[in-house]
Specification:
There is one protein chain. This protein is α+β, with helices and mostly antiparallel strands. A ten-stranded mixed beta sheet has the order 9-8-10-11-5-12-18-17-13-14, sandwiched between helices. A two-stranded antiparallel ribbon has the order 1-2. Helix 4 packs across helix 7 and helix 11 packs across helix 12. The chain starts with 19 loop residues before the first strand and ends with a strand. The relative contact order is 0.16.
Length: 494
């Protein structure tokens, strides 16, 4: 077990709040406030581990190693007001906007990557993406707004309203509920980039008087949550989080905490992105982040393959309805799965490159399991971040192997191999894939597995779907800036 946020000291340390420690799978977990800890002191921890349980004084002072004949098992939340269940899902994807169709396509191993035809791409060095075709807002966005909105917000409104419908929270039902107790938290890494790009073009070519009055409102990243609330009348917590490709998981984590703190009964949470425009594609080309397999775009996204050469840009939205078990039971909701916990950390290392030691990722996984009350040996499925980048894929695998010493029962797959990397929406779409895996008992394949990296010793479900009863699943998302996020899901058990 990797050591995380741990320290030892022979001198007293002042603190404001009590420390907690517990024993998980033979390794220590700490939570503390007001202290600045060393990044890791593995040797010191090993010495403490040989003496038994590591504990700290409630009033603080110093850390002491104390003998204990027993070890505590992880404890899951039992309070129905604090248990979080999933009662609805909605998406917009390269495979359409129907949950079952989306997952069926994934199970079939279908690639949604195609040549870009939305604008003239002929001079670009990368000419393909997970571009959405045939998208319709009929029944979800009125015609006047539909013509004005950035695609990002169109995707958000459709996915959000579909999720509400899936949870039996349509307009008529919502009118009977306390809407001040229902919040919206749908984030985006880049926001209304199309609206921003168009506004800047007008400014540069025609002058400021020709800028659309919707330039600012439709560019800012909070507008998806705001528009969804305006359309549905939801008056609870409402904002957005923007942590690049980790965005959706951050939103799930924050939304769950609103419910656990009693600030909301229901949260509409997820991520959305619409970057397949000239500025978006050109910007990622400039970052040298994209695969350049223009001759075989459907084989371009190949996580963990030795010949991977970058990620494939994608777009869409993924939204969950997160609800307290108490509230869901009282209204007779159909419970799809349970959100067990989550965590967020920062690499504090580099704008785009992950830490080579994987500490940010491994610590995030460990913290998520602690929040969920789950022991590492209970986890048997990982929906990996796995973007198909040279460095990132292996760093994630090595971090996973640090946390899960025995990976023989774990299966791990990469949704991005088929839909591309949807940035802020990635975690939303992958959460839905994870929940579908829990409910169907089938894992979708990781396609384009031709020559696996030897370090990848975990079953990646190569090229063909596999039947697998999921006990506990984690879904990883990491973003530029060193943002790490992990969420934990499991089948609902009353």
């Amino acid at each position: 077990m990797a050591s995380v946020n741990a320290f030892s000291s022979s001198s007293g340390l002042a603190c404001k709040k009590s420390h907690e420690s517990s024993w998980r799978n033979g390794g220590p977990f700490f939570s503390y406030n007001g202290l600045r800890a060393a990044e890791t002191l593995q040797s010191g921890l090993n010495k403490l581990e040989t003496k038994g349980f590591i504990s700290t004084s409630a009033r603080c002072g110093r850390i002491k190693a104390m003998a204990s004949p027993t070890t505590s098992a992880p404890k899951r939340e039992t309070d129905p007001k604090k248990r979080i269940v999933i009662t609805g899902m909605g998406l917009v994807s390269v495979f359409g906007s129907d949950i079952d169709t989306f997952y069926d396509k994934l199970l079939e191993g279908t690639s949604g990557i195609t040549p870009i035809d939305r604008f003239d791409i002929s001079e670009y060095s990368v000419r393909f993406a997970g571009q959405i075709h045939g998208f319709s807002t009929t029944g979800y966005v009125d015609g006047k707004n539909d013509r004005r909105l950035d695609d990002c917000w169109r995707y958000c409104l459709v996915a959000g309203k579909k999720a509400l419908d899936d949870a039996n929270l349509g307009k008529q039902v919502l009118e009977t509920m306390d809407k001040t107790r229902i919040g919206v938290l749908v984030g985006s890494g880049m926001g209304g980039i199309s609206a921003f790009s168009s506004g800047m073009e007008s400014l540069l070519l025609k002058g400021y008087k020709k800028i659309s009055p919707f330039f600012i409102p439709y560019s800012i990243s909070n507008m998806g949550s705001a528009l969804l609330a305006i359309d549905t009348g939801l008056m609870g917590p409402n904002y957005s989080i923007s942590t690049a490709c980790a965005t959706a998981n951050y939103c799930f984590y924050a939304a769950a905490n609103h419910i656990r703190r009693g600030e909301a009964d229901i949260m509409v949470a997820g991520g959305v992105e619409a970057p397949v425009i000239p500025a978006g594609v050109g910007g990622f080309i400039a970052c040298r982040a994209l695969s350049q397999r223009n001759d075989e775009p459907q084989k371009a996204s190949r996580p963990w393959d030795k010949n991977r050469d970058g990620f494939v840009l994608g777009e869409g939205a993924g939204v969950l309805i997160m609800e307290s078990l108490d509230h869901a039971m009282k209204r007779g909701a159909n419970i799809i799965a349970e959100y067990l916990g989550g965590a967020v950390t920062c690499d504090a290392h580099h704008m785009t490159d992950p830490r080579s030691d994987g500490l940010g990722v491994s610590s995030c996984i460990i913290k998520s399991l602690k929040d969920a009350g789950v022991a590492p040996e209970e986890v048997n499925y990982v929906n990996a971040h796995a973007t198909s980048t040279v460095a990132g894929d292996l760093y994630e695998v090595n971090a996973i192997k640090k946390v899960f010493k025995d990976t023989s029962e774990i299966k791990m797959n990469a949704t991005k191999s088929m839909i591309g990397h949807c940035l802020g929406a990635a975690g939303g779409l992958e959460a839905i894939a994870t929940i579908q895996a829990i409910n169907t008992g089938w894992l979708h394949p990781t396609i384009n597995q031709y020559d696996l990296e030897p370090e990848v010793t975990i079953d990646t479900v190569p090229n063909v779907k596999k039947q697998h009863e999921v006990n506990v699943a984690i879904s990883n998302s990491f973003g530029f800036g060193g943002h790490n996020s992990v969420v934990v899901f499991g089948p609902f058990k009353s």
